[in-house]
Amino acid sequence: MPLTKFKFNPGVYKDGTQYTDNNAWYDSDKIRFRGGKPEKIGGWQRISSNTFKGTCRGLHNWQDLAGTDYMGVGTHLKYYIELGGAYNDITPIRKTSTNSITFSATNGSSTLTVTDSSHGAQNGDFVTISGAVSLGGNVTAAVLNQEYQIDLVLTANTYNITAKDTSGDTVTANSSDSGNGGSGVDGSYQINTGTDSYAQSTGWGAGNWGRGTWGSSDTAGTNLRLWTHDNYGEDLIMAPRADNASGGVFYWDSSSGVSTRGVALSAVSGASDTPTLVNQIMVSEEARHVIAFGSNPVGSTDHDQMLIRWSDAGSAVDWTPTAVNSAGGQRISSGSKIVGAAKARGEIILWTDAGMHSMQYIGGDFVFSFRQITEGPSLIGPNAAVNEASRIFWMDRGNFWYYDGAHHILDCTVLDYVFSDINLSQTYKVFGGANADFSEVWWFYPSADSSEIDRYVIYNYKENLWSVGSMVRTAWSEAPTRNVPVAAGYTSKYLYNHETTKNDDGSAMTAYIESGDIDLDDIGDRYIFISKIIPDLAFSGTGTQEVSVSIKGRDYPFDSLSTLSTSTITNTTQQAFIRGRARQTVVRIESSNQDMGWRLGDMRFELRADGRR
Q1: For the segment 262-284, what is each residue's pLDDT rounded down to a tens digit?
Q2: Strands (E), 52-157
Q3: What is the Cα–Cα distance from 39 to 603, expressed in whole angstroms?
Q4: pLDDT tens digits for 304-351?
Q5: How far, in Å, are 123, 156, 330, 346, 496 from residue 94 at the CA level?
Q6: Arithmetic mean of pLDDT, 31-56
Q7: Which pLDDT score is estimated for 201?
Q8: What single string gives the DSSP state of each residue in 127-164?
Q9: What does pTM read for this prediction?
Q10: What single string gives the DSSP state of each residue in 515-529?
């Protein structure tokens, strides 16, 4: 019988049915395309066994002048600087109480009630207690004098914590714990924590109609804690997204070391009219202005989500516009909220909930010029735009786009698959990332049945190809000073170096690609009998080099696929004999071994027309 080369079109095509996508790849996981051929993606390994607290929603990589490599890690609970695999807590302090804290304990309970007048804390906040003495029993000074996460705020003056020892084990008070901790107890309260979920605007006026000043309803708006950050020379400027919650702009001086916390920008020497509520912070490339998108106006504590403000050139702290500096601001009029912004070549692109604008440095009295690019296209989430290959790629609520001086819709072969099964109630969790070594942009998003990110879609901009898969990640950095991308896990609370191994953090990674239905001819009425495979694969790595090739079949489009035959292909397999008969046939290549990778060529199958028996 003759051998037939199966030459599938490159890329994954999921916008038709599996039956109509003939000679195409229909499904994939942990697969990319390179040179038009599918291959298993690179694996990942945790940076260290250390973990961080909270869900990471922002990563920023930079180096100081001495070459020290930093990674800013913003979670919904804290902000860290990762250095050498250690997570150094630099979360700014919101308030310090001096000689004002007392405790009360109940016999047989691990709950301590803390009294501190006007503490300003909320559930989940962190406080570091010092100067306390023993309550007299199990609750010793060592138990009290450490960092605690607040369990429950009772009143403006009281809250509960759970007593623990220095190892983190729960401590239960006894009848001797009758003291109050002494008269010299201090407390350092970190900035209020954020939440790990996104609550869409509710109430009358929510949505597009009625947006604006009168009738708008964003009071329930976005409460997901997102961080933006940028390096100002060697130092770091970071801000939690305000969006109707507490915010602020903070500064970390790298010369003080990772044992020093960030401070409010307003507390830095020379600070003047620094913003206190922002949706995003950025440092411009041209004249080193610090730019706040969605800011409070000068002299006001109101949050104007359409106002852009910038500092004086070369100063991170001088935000007061005068005749002799270049500090200033501009309010965008189209829309009700600036969703996000990204640096492009020679300009900054920003998206409101109603369209796109360009912000370009021109110097002189006006400093920046603004123009509206278009109405309509927006961002699905603040972190869904990626600057890569001299273009901006982004995802909105129904399409993928790119900008190269003009805006264009990307021709996407998996569009319906992505947008018909995405959780639109958690869109602010969606984010994009670049993987330049493979000419790729990745977007991570939650599927319809998931409240957290569990899927990705890859666009290869060099070859204009798409692939899809499943992966749980919450933040991504191309990490330009580290040579490989870095991403954050969700349950694990690790950072991972990607494209460094063949494995899933030391375990086997399952990868597969599956074709659409294959007919023997366009008539689709004849059965196919497949009896032999001539493999065409290139293996890599040190592990067992093998994949399984499954032949699936069905007789009619609405029939379920059934596996007809499966063969194991190794690096020494010359041919594999199989038996499979169906009107439509599907080919699936899959691997689940450690320390191995593979790339698929054009496999040949021995097949012929056959009758049904």
Answers
A1: 999 999 999 999 999 999 999 99
A2: 56-63, 69-75, 79-83, 86-89, 93-97, 102-105, 111-115, 126-130, 147-149, 152-153
A3: 14
A4: 999 999 999 999 999 999 999 999 999 999 999 999 999 999 999 999
A5: 15, 16, 29, 37, 31
A6: 98
A7: 56
A8: EEEES----SSSS-HHHHSSEEE--EE-SSSEEEEE-B
A9: 0.94
A10: E--B-SSTT--SEEE
- A 10 A CB-CB count for 139 gives 25
Q: How high does pLDDT run on average in the chain? A: 92
Among 477, 408, 407, residue whose Cα is nearest residue 61 = 477
3-class SS string, 306-347: EEEEECCCCCCCECCCCCCCCCEEEECCCCCCEEEEEEECCE
Alpha helices in 396-512 (DSSP H): 415-419
For residue 425 the two structure tokens come to 């109630």
**What residues are paired with 70 via a beta bridge?**
62
Beta-carbon contacts of residue 367 (< 8 Å; ≥ 6 apart):
289, 310, 326, 328, 361
Report domain extents, the chain: 3-42+511-610, 44-85+383-500, 93-190, 203-378
Q: What's the pLDDT score for residue 213?
A: 36
Distance of CA 380 to the CA centre of its chain: 13
What's the token pair of residue 477? 């950095």
- Of 492, 474, 491, the closest CA to residue 225 belongs to 474
Of the chain, the percentage scoring pLDDT greater than 70 comes to 93
- Find tokens 């009425």 and name the residue: 525
* Cβ neighbour number for residue 312 with a 10 Å cutoff: 23
- Report the distance separating Cα 148 and Cα 150, nearest Å: 6
Q: Which CATH number fits domain 3-42+511-610: 3.90.1690, 3.30.70, 2.60.40, 2.60.120?
A: 2.60.120
Q: How far apart are the first and last CA of the chain?
A: 19
Tell me the backbone φ, ψ of residue 382, rounded to 5 degrees: -60, -25
Torsion angle of the four alpha carbons 208, 210, 214, 218, in this order, in degrees rounded to the nearest 10: -40
pLDDT of residue 200: 67
CATH architecture group of domain 93-190 = Beta Barrel (2.40)
Confidence of residue 611 (pLDDT cuts 50, 70, 90): low
For the chain, give me the number of helices (H) and strands (E)? 2, 50
User: What does the alpha-carbon distance between residue 342 and residue 294 come to, in Å, rounded to a whole number?
Assistant: 14
Burial class (CB in 10 A: 0-12, 13-18, 19+), 469: buried
pLDDT over threshold 70, residue 205:
no
Around Cβ 122, how many Cβ atoms within 10 Å? 12
Identify the pLDDT of residue 582: 81
> Is residue 204 over pLDDT 50?
no
Scanning the structure block, which residue is given the tokens 């490339």? 285
